[in-house]
# Entry
Amino acid sequence: MTKISKPRASPLVTIIITTFQRAGLVPQAIDSVLSQTYSNVDIVVVEDGSTDHTAEVLARYEGNPRIRIVRHDSNRGVTAAKNTGLRELGVETTYFGILDSDDTLLPDAVDRLVREFERAEDQYSMIIGWCESVPPGHQTGEMRHLVDRTGPLTFDDALAGRFRGEFWHLARRDLLGAMHFEERASGGEGSVWWRLLRSRPGWVIPDVVRIYDISGHDRVSLPAYTRRAAVGMMWRQQAMLHAVGEDLLRQDPRAYARWLTELAKWAALGGDGPRARLASRRAVRLAPSFRSIGIAVLAISPGPLLGQIAAAVAWVRARGRAA
# Structure
């Protein structure tokens, strides 16, 4: 008697969407996940203490078995919200991704990434797709080491700075372990993603999978020189150094010194003099340069002078964007 095997169930993919004050945008992000051609997808929405109409907008999704909505009582920041989403991942989730609430996935995004995971079996920690921006509708990332936009992405590629810009990926939940984002940081997600690449390489597919909105006033990538923003950038740099700094020091001491210099700059502008002085001294000892020496001087400057410097830099950047 021939035994009939049951078809293998599709792996569960969980998409984390964090949102704050985006009542008008978050529905299109959620709907883009619900409309994926890959059917075994669920969503964790983390509402980060919004005071607009986000709660009312999300109420229309209550009761949908594919959506879990988690609410923060107050705004805790995007990295804290992402950590909440990671804690909501269940053991049944095989792959996960994080989608900004002002972005959207193309309809076959998840299907394309999962198919590549299954083709490669256990080789990769993540599968990565490309993004296009709106406005103005062009590629948001660059991987200089790839031919025809496809190929492996290794931990060494990350350390060597062979890619930059925005991409979107699914990652394996079983490799995540206890890793989480630094909640005091403004961004700095590489402190998690790069460690996943250290465990196993990633693979880049040639397809566009996400539409990335660069028009928002609250984008982390926009330069800001308030003291609060500087502190967030300081912790972003500190998180990366904590995660992969020793590897970078072994591979490229001069690049490590540049990272220390960046940490010293933001620490000085954020008012953390001891951290700024320690980082700048280490940078100068490792690889003295005009920039590292200049930041070392900045690190010992009095607070009012730092404020004036920050205001001047912000003014120059603003004039440059307006030109």
User: Anything to note?
Assistant: The two ends are 78 Å apart (CA to CA). The first helix runs from residue 26 to 34.
